[in-house]
Amino acid sequence: MKTIQKINFSIFLLIFLSTPGFTQMRVWNNTTESVNGQVLIGDFTSPWDGQLNIKNTTPDKRTLYLQHNASSDGKHCLTINVNRLLSEAWVVMYNGAAKSFARGNGNIYSNGVLLTSDSTLKRDIKPLLSVKKQLFMLNGYSYYRKDDGGLLPKREIGFLAQEVEKVFPETVDTAFGGKKVLSYTSMIPIIVEAMKEQQTEIEQLKGQISNLSDRLESLEKKFEKGGLAPAPQNNTAAANPEQSNLFQNTPNPFSESTTIRYSLPLACSTARLIIFDSQGIEKKNFLIVSRGVSETIINARELNPGTYVYTLVVDGRSVDTKTMILTAN
């Protein structure tokens, strides 16, 4: 078979359709330059470096139009096959600079991605409600990809699609031979709503703490008027054996259990640890029989989530009062 090295002619092909109008394709060969097997479509007056070169000089006309009528799903309209993971499969250029490109490893690089989100294109719109608890069920991981092609591996951070699918199935799809794919952008509204829920809880707790602070101040004034002023507060771990001490519970806030430490002088007759809710209703009352430094463990199952105050009462006298917060598990 002979090899044609140089062709010095232009081909004009007119295809007339059954409807008005026609399509014109001109394959052009520069007679003064060697094309080395390259195909040129269009009027090229500048250098080219592709095996297939298409130049469009007609305003408002597509340069390349592909129509794919598949008889079944999974058939490709356009396939780009590269032999290296870091080779650019396609590149979008503007003024000689790459603005977007995809590599053989599947990574897409771009200055920005805008996703269609117009409300007029959506139906059955519903707000996301109570997603914080579901979001806290997810786990983040760091990992290496198995298909790194022998390149220097880079540790990545993300979710496992199979785990996310159990909690938010709307964000996961199946593709590529049964492999799971995750829409990370779909996680953004979930995170936003979870943060709003958490902020609402924080504001509620702030209000409860402020209310308790006012109530505590009122109680202290009543104690002072009745000559029952509370003893000076002492939050240090070292207790004075000659006086009663109440320490801040740890941890605080808590969701499972917390420990309240206190110290009592040997000479005291009776001592009680009393817990009140934010409305001032007594919820727990512990009789303390030990003396010296001791502690009481509060189990979260015994109380509802919320803000509480606990008071150490020794020989009928309030020694100190502190605040503790129980969060939902």
Commentary on this structure:
With 329 residues, the protein is α+β, with helices and mostly antiparallel strands. Among the domains are: 11-65, no CATH class; 127-190, no CATH class; 230-326, Sandwich (Immunoglobulin-like), CATH 2.60.40. The protein contains three helices and 18 strands. It has helices spanning 132-135, 161-167, 187-225, and strands at residues 11-16, 22-27, 39-41, 52-54, 88-94, 97-103, 108-110, 141-143, 156-158, 172-175, 179-182, 245-246, 257-264, 271-277, 282-287, 292-299, 306-314, 317-326. A four-stranded antiparallel beta sheet has the order 15-14-17-18, covered by helices on one side. Strand 17 and strand 18 (317-326) form a beta hairpin. The radius of gyration is 37 Å and the shape is elongated. Residues 1-26, 28-34 and 227-241 have low confidence and may be disordered.
List keywords for this structure.
329 residues; alpha+beta; Immunoglobulin-like; four-stranded antiparallel β-sheet; three-stranded antiparallel β-sheet; 18 strands; disordered N terminus
**Count of distinct strands:** 18
Number of helical elements: 3
Spatial strand sequence of the major β-sheet: 15-14-17-18
Q: What sequence of helices (H) and strands (E) makes up the elements? A: EEEEEEEHEEHEEHEEEEEEE
Strand content: 25-35%
Write a concise synopsis of the structure shown.
The chain is an alpha+beta fold and 329 residues long. The protein has helices spanning 132-135, 161-167, 187-225, and strands at residues 11-16, 22-27, 39-41, 52-54, 88-94, 97-103, 108-110, 141-143, 156-158, 172-175, 179-182, 245-246, 257-264, 271-277, 282-287, 292-299, 306-314, 317-326.
